[in-house]
Design goal:
The structure is a homodimer. Chain A is of the alpha+beta class. Chain A has helices spanning about 20-30, 60-70, 80-90, 100-105, 105-115, 130-140, 165-175, 230-245, 280, 285-295, 320-325; strands at about 10-15, 35-40, 50-55, 70-75, 125, 145-150, 160, 180-185, 190-195, 205, 210-215, 215-225, 250-260, 260-270, 305-315, 330-335, 345-355. The model of chain A has no long low-confidence stretch (mean pLDDT about 95).
């Protein structure tokens, strides 16, 4: 295995949003600098990064200079253009690797991969045409959700199909993008496992958190999640199986539905994950540092939780609550976004509830 | 009172060392940017700051541009030239204020101030000449320590006087700098209180930590400190009295000797303090964020501790231990200093021992 990155080394991060911002902060704790690559102006991560490149993903000169300036490359979002990755990969290692990206960039590939590992997923079908959808509404069943295969997040690129008559409108909503139909799952609640794998193949997982969504956006994560001991073990084993199958390096978020028939994998994200933000105040080594440790070739922390935590996202006008939240013992984490928009993640708060149960 | 600084505001920090670095990180959690002013090249804080000015404290143009670019100014060390402060104060508020700086910059002023509050200090005498020292070795007594009135830190600018015959050499060691003679205190251990005061006068203190020094440099801080309940109350009341007397805004470190005759104030530092680093992993709101909250006009956190912590400094070659420390559950905090020097603070580790006792 390669030597761990030393003090003064630089990790390149593709994407300058809040995840890149918190990755930068975590890197600083290990004496490692970050260089952010981000097309948008004034990205949140720029406030705490050593260097920032503002350029688009088709700017080969900027990508080359970026790739040459860093020791290793990681990313905060999975929808990175393949051509940019090809160029960057010739200049520095990319962690997590291309297989993880290719798998998670496409819902069809992802679900096929998960089933190939013997894991349960929602029933699904590939939808390239209205004819495909007509067949699939019968085989997969309704109600279901039509989702674009690529580029979906926070509920975007999705249309519900409650009855077959909803099919044509849902198909039109996809605007010609390749899609899949997913059957509804009858689940009691959703949990997620934040898992990590190091360069030398060690795996560490945080305790599963329980997620509540509103309007397709994560609202709260509560740790510990309501799980039986065997469900908790299952959740961690599922995450470990996925990490190992992808020869993964870094942190991954694995969302699971809890059902009477066992745990069903909803989706995987090859990066630090909103549902792991609680680790910042519940663990000595948070998910952001764990990810930096993995991509930097450091040993992983064991992920032990010292406290029970409730994480709540601050979305849009939730920012109006910050003055009151500041009077409480909640740990506030704002992302430095000056413009408040409806549905925009502006920050989160972690409430340390009590010592780990 | 003024409005709290909003998202996107900028705090100017004088000094770009590890304290400025960790202040920058804490500011980012509140959505606030930092601008570092530092004469040295490649300061540790530059890795995580939005902006850095590299200039000396007699560069009026650079100071002016810096002062005009920020909403409020704070600092990570107390020995800032008065002329620079005069200029900066005309451009933006400075917290903690000039009275706190003037008091703590000079050991004679500080001890006189503390005694004026009715607090116990070591016996001391003003030493401007060898004749003064001869008299003082009799009145204050020996053994004692001769210390320069200004610019001392980590045991520098100090000379021990075990017997009166050591006087002349100790006086020569001061190289003509104004000094004070401090009598030795017979103390069982040293503790420190990290206190904070907000713009509107609210005070919050963390639980006292117990400090162990080696060669004049802090080695470990353990929380909670060995104190009786009444000593603990005393310690916090002493800190609060000092904060209020100085109309202080920000975090202050107050070092106290524990003696059979009560708590004796060793010294105060008008800034975040090495003995408060444990708060990063023992509290939801650490001393760095507490300081940023105070100078930014935010409400203070209440300083509640969720865990018992042992903080250990990594000094010089202690960096060789990092690979082994990385395999444990210790929270590692490195400062990004590439050059290891004997006696140089390179980082620290916080070990969360157990839930708060």
């Amino acid at each position: 295995m390669t030597d761990p990155l030393p003090v003064g080394a630089t990790i390149g991060i593709l994407g300058g949003g809040q995840l890149g911002r918190m990755l930068s902060v975590a890197a600083s704790r290990l004496g490692i600098r970050t260089h952010i690559f981000e097309p948008g102006e004034n990205p949140p991560a720029a406030d705490v990064a050593h260097q920032v490149t503002t350029a688009s993903y088709d700017n080969d000169a900027a990508l080359t200079a970026f790739g040459q300036s860093v020791d290793v490359i990681t990313y905060e979002f999975e929808n990175i253009p393949t051509r940019a990755l090809d160029l960057l990969e010739s200049l520095a290692p990319i962690h997590p690797g291309r297989q993880a990206l290719a798998t998670s960039q496409d819902r069809l590939t992802e679900k096929t991969f998960l089933q190939g590992l013997g894991l349960q997923t929602a029933p699904f079908a590939d939808i390239a045409s209205m004819a495909d959808l007509t067949v699939a509404m019968d085989s997969v069943g309704t109600p279901g959700i039509l989702k674009t295969r690529r580029m979906g997040y926070d509920g975007k690129g999705q249309a519900r199909i409650m009855v077959p008559e909803d099919g044509p409108q849902a198909f039109a909503d996809m605007a010609g993008a390749p899609a899949i139909l997913e059957g509804f799952i009858n689940f009691s609640h959703e949990v997620s496992v934040i898992g990590a794998r190091s360069v030398d193949g060690a795996v560490a997982c945080y305790d599963p958190g329980e997620n509540v969504h509103e309007a397709g956006i994560l609202r709260t994560t509560t740790v510990p999640a309501r799980l039986t001991p065997s469900q908790r073990t299952d959740a961690v084993l599922i995450a470990a199986r996925i990490l190992n199958a992808l020869d993964y390096v870094g942190v991954m978020g694995v969302e699971l539905f809890v059902t009477p028939a066992g745990l069903i994998v909803n989706e995987i994200a090859p990066r630090v994950h909103n549902s792991g933000h609680w680790t910042q105040n519940g663990c000595s080594i948070c998910q952001f540092e764990q990810h930096i440790r993995a991509v930097a070739g450091w040993p992983l922390g064991d992920g032990q939780r010292h406290s029970d935590v409730v994480m709540e996202n601050l979305i849009g006008d939730d920012m109006d609550r910050v003055p009151e939240l500041a009077k409480t013992d909640a740990a506030i984490h704002l992302y430095g976004k000056e413009e408040v928009k409806a549905g925009r993640k502006m920050g989160h708060v972690n409430r340390v509830v009590k010592p780990a149960s």
